[in-house]
Protein 1
Amino acid sequence: MNHQKQTGQKGEDMAVAFLEDDGYTIQERNYRYKRAEIDIIAKKRNILVFVEVKSRRSNVFGYPESFVDEKQADRITEAAEEYMYQIKWQKNVRFDIISIETGSGLKITHFKDAFH
């Protein structure tokens, strides 16, 4: 596994722990549909939350959350629609980003309702 994938996997593991500590129940990890992947699907109360995790060692080239572009958000939304169809979900949904910076100390930021 290359260094970039290791950083991403560690970031996802940290995001899962962060969400669980905040009362979320993890439903799926790395859900794939066509060319899209949803890093984490979690549930809290009656809200199904689709989470994109972005990890960086430094923000020299931009903050981690800024690397979710419109095209990626569209693919995640399409995959989320398929997932909701499969489980027959008809309640509230939300699309979040968890930004993780590991360079000079650990910083985790949870952006709720980051895109639609």
Protein 2
Amino acid sequence: MKYKISKEFTETPGGRFYTDGDFSGEMFREEVLKSLLETAISSNEKIIIDLDDTYGYGSSFLEEAFGGLARIKTTKIVKEIIDFKSNDEPEQIERLKKYIEDASK
């Protein structure tokens, strides 16, 4: 299963929380990621999150969305089911993996 943030959520990811404005990491986690994860689990699929073609990601958006998901669903589940793709900023993938890993600490 593939999900491209710029096409299906926004080209302009926002801050950490709903209160920080539109398209926050919290909104992405609560309104998109949780559902994607449950669908992937029930259909025994992996999710490939495409990070390309946005105007950039703040660390607060990424940590809240993906680190927050790991805190809710466990780091192990998130690491097993979600993969990332980024041709624009491949270093972003390592940052995301660190946020997910650090969520269990």
